[in-house]
Amino acid sequence: MAIQTSPFDQLVKEASRNMRGFSGKDTPDDTLLQDCVHCGMCLPTCPTYRLTGNEASSPRGRLWMMKAVADGRMDLLDPAFDEQMYQCLNCRACEAVCPSGVQYGPLVEASRAQLEQHRPRPRWQRVARSVGMRLPFDDIRRMRALTGGLRLYQRSGLSAVLQRTGVLKRLGLETLEAMVPPVRERPLVSGRESWQPEDATATAHLFNGCVMSTVFSGVNRAAGRVLAHNGYATDVPATQQCCGALYVHAGMMDEARRLARINIDAFERDGNGAIVVTAAGCGAALKEYDHLLADDADYRDRASSFAERVVDLTELVGTDRLVQPTVSASQQVTYQEPCHLAHAQRITQQPRTMLGSVPGLELTEMRESSLCCGSAGIYNIIRREMADDLGDRKAQHIKDTGAGVVVTANPGCAMQLRTSLNRNNINAEVRHIAEILDDAYGGERAARDGTWAFQRATPPT
Amino acid sequence: MDRDAFLAELKTICGDRGVLHQAADLLVYEYDGSVDGAVDTERPLAAVLPTSTEQVSAVVRLAYRYGAPVVARGAGTGLSGGAVARGGGVIIALTRMDRTLRVDPVNRTALVEPGVINLELSQSVGPQGMFFAPDPSSQKACTIGGNVAENSGGPHCLKYGVTTNHILGLEVVLPDGTVTWIDAHGPGVGGLDLVAILVGSEGMLGIVTKILVRLMPSPESVHVHLAAFGTMDDAAVCVTNVIGAGILPASLEMMDQLTIKAVEPAYHAGYPMDAAAVLLVEVDGTGAEVDEMSAQIERIAGESGATSFRSAQSAAEQELLWKGRKMALAAMGRLAPNYYLHDTVVPRTRLTETLRAVNDISQEFRLDIANVFHAGDGNLHPLMLFDRRKSGDVERILEASHELIKTCVSMGGTLSGEHGIGSEKQGYMELIYTGEDLAAMAGIKLAFDPRERMNPEKVLPKGYMCGEVRALHNQAMAQKHGIHPM
Ligand SMILES: Cc1cc2nc3c(=O)[nH]c(=O)nc-3n(C[C@H](O)[C@H](O)[C@H](O)COP(=O)(O)OP(=O)(O)OC[C@H]3O[C@@H](n4cnc5c(N)ncnc54)[C@H](O)[C@@H]3O)c2cc1C
Ligand code: SF4
Ligand code: SF4
What we know:
The complex is a heterodimer. In chain A, helix 25 links the parallel strand 8 (405-408) and strand 9 (429-432). In chain A, helix 8 packs across helix 9 (140-156) and helix 14 (217-229) crosses helix 26. Chain A folds into 4 domains: 23-118, Fumarate Reductase Iron-sulfur Protein, Chain B, domain 2, CATH 1.10.1060.10; 124-179, no CATH class; 193-319, Glutathione S-transferase Yfyf (Class Pi), Chain A, domain 2, CATH 1.20.1050; 331-440, Rossmann fold (3-Layer(aba) Sandwich), CATH 3.40.50.10700. Chain A is 53% helix and 8% strand. Chain A is α/β, with parallel strands linked by helices. By secondary structure, chain B is an alpha+beta fold. Chain B has 4 domains: 3-93, Uridine Diphospho-n-acetylenolpyruvylglucosamine Reductase, domain 2; 100-216, Uridine Diphospho-n-acetylenolpyruvylglucosamine Reductase, domain 3; 221-410, Vanillyl-alcohol Oxidase, Chain A, domain 3; 433-481, no CATH class. Chain B contains 17 helices and 20 strands. A 7-stranded antiparallel sheet of chain B has the order 15-12-14-13-18-20-16, with helices on both faces. A 5-stranded antiparallel sheet of chain B has the order 5-6-10-8-9. Chain B is globular, with a radius of gyration of 23 Å. At the A-B interface, helix 1, helix 4 and helix 5 of A face helix 2 and helix 12 of B. The structure holds flavin-adenine dinucleotide and iron/sulfur cluster (2 copies). Residues 45-48, 59, 62, 88-94, 104 of chain A line the site of one iron/sulfur cluster.
């Protein structure tokens, strides 16, 4: 009567003979893994599980696989393991709801680091990766050069020509093209600008970021002004670099550590005021520098002090002490919660407090506002299909609110939202929360003739 | 059986993406929410993700032809191993069938697919002034299909009743693949009440593919109170006094000191850390009713020795107080890596006695046991904390569990309040059921599923399965009627 399972059992047995487990540097912490009691409470918050209904695409399934690799029941290089470790958006929605306090983020990052170390890769792929990843992020000056080129390209009309002729499509670059907003302002070079209100009560140091300081430099300047309005004398420490989050997400830990050390050095020089971040993804990574450098005797403690100083812009100003803006903005907006703000940093109320303070602004909540939009670092470039599905779902929810503006607080989300709205022919503008507040304080003009002086620091010699 | 041919046919029904068969893909279908050690994991033969009743029916029919067992699966939050396939079965995961098909605000009903998540149903009908009453602590994740199969309950079932009280009709795929619709009994419906049999049948009689649920009108007013006590006994006395005074709160939940220690640091729900026990009381109804009940409860709590009494002042505060309770179970992960949750209903009058016995077991086996439970209806949830990596811990837990279950049964308790028997409590069935009871249950199973293909090897203890049943049944009937078979 019993069904014959022998050929299948055979398969399982054979497969288990040569299991490669975790080894070497950056292995997923076994104690953290054991925290998961497979209760399943995290399932409905997981975007990939919502789309597929497949347990393997759920946080619990992924954790179970990690445990299986650790226990020698699954091969580290099993394609299914690889697939799931990278299909995960690392949005950390699961982590925010897990009642047992499972630290999912560090576990998936370590699993990726393991794959990075042990996966045989064709040479060309290694080269392509190091060009693709290291070139822009290793040194912020390269990012600036790239953006400069981009600005030129957008302005020259070449962009329009290429779009018309379909060349981009043929090169597979149309997503990238559609994502990037028009670069309006010159890059914000660290160390060159600062905002000094006359009645400053505290100091803050802006974390400039790679994409934020270039493609979104306008947002960072807006943030500087918002901070100044709230009494913070704000500078942009000179020698800082990219936060390294994209490396961490890709499991390239050593590259990330290099950047972390540079940033710790950079921000130690300028006293110990708050380190203010305008990109949720960067903020989440910066707050975890202590974890990243836990094995580095020289930097361990300094990384902890650094991490404690890090705050998101909304976290710092979106409190009941927020200076009330006065310039009315009669518009209906909706708020898209960046995963790395809502889930990784658990900041949900403060951005709403900020939006609520703007006279005339009406906030209409969208459905599933904290479900990932599909951006997830570079996910939308490497995993188009899943990202598009999530983007479409998001676009529909935005449309349903009838709002003309979507507010968010992370560059990746901003770009993904832009593409998704375009693809779905929905007419809504995507803006950063700093820009909304800045406008409500009167924007750049108020800054220049207003109550506090706009100073440009002299470049360091 | 030709596995390849079977898989190929499955694919023609559910499509390539709807059929999982690689060893690695099936690894994650070997567990559910139940405790390691108490329920063995087992890898299924395959897992399918159908999107319609037709697909479910076709899969069941095909499996029937090949002689493969089938096991329905919702969110896999079950605590008794119900969704773990035994004997190389095919898992039919209903997670892709998650549409709400119709909401009728006039008659207050909704027709849903089984994969709809419990809380999301309540949230979606909330704006129309309705909610789905059964609210297991897992309601954020568990499915209505799973609720039906387990006849799940929750804190609000004290006033509103468990799942079975809220099901008006079911579309069921029977073990041979036939699709049928059954109505619950009510005015004008006669015959055998099959819905009553299907609800709580743990996936052994049929796969539910559509559910007509009753929705309740949202109460006009809700108050939530938290009373703290210096001893467990005082808290238990308070429970008895409240119910004795003829008050029917929407829910009446108790948590002991260990639970408070796990929950408070995690959620800052405002439970006093020095209390030996807290009671969470919710009352609902019209404004005047609720005010009056609240005043009465505050008075009774004081008389029963409450050391503090607090009423939530806002919806947010209510939610926070509740969060501590709803997340209590899973927050135990902060105290120990593993927990084993028990589930029994004892007569309310023997609550204190049972709690003391539980405490004795905790001492005897040197085990931490937390208590968080639906005090209002005597549904206890003693929760044993352990670390499965420590050698001997699992054995100790299983021994203590055995002791605990026997103790609860001796207090007149049941094997399960709401989590089901599955494979977890199978071995204990004979503690409370006679051979005749079990043969009667097996008879029902047999009537629906003569070939034992639907979620086999569950609920009924060994000796009451397969062919054994028929023999036993005959034997029991013979004995009953004084006939002695040769
Ligand atoms: C943290 C936590 C707290 C919990 N709290 C409670 C509680 O307060 N009260 C309570 O009652 N339970 C509770 N449970 C147990 C569990 O959540 C419930 O039993 C729930 O109803 C299971 O739903 P599911 O969708 O996860 O079902 P699954 O676990 O997937 O399946 C459970 C059983 O139902 C069967 N089944 C599933 N879907 C169908 C279908 N469509 N047709 C036929 N059979 C089907 C399966 O075969 C299996 O036997 C809790 C669990 C956890 C992890
Ligand atoms: S990650 Fe947390 S919520 Fe998810 S299954 Fe594990 S313990 Fe449960
Ligand atoms: S991080 Fe996001 S995508 Fe990854 S498992 Fe958690 S919820 Fe799912």
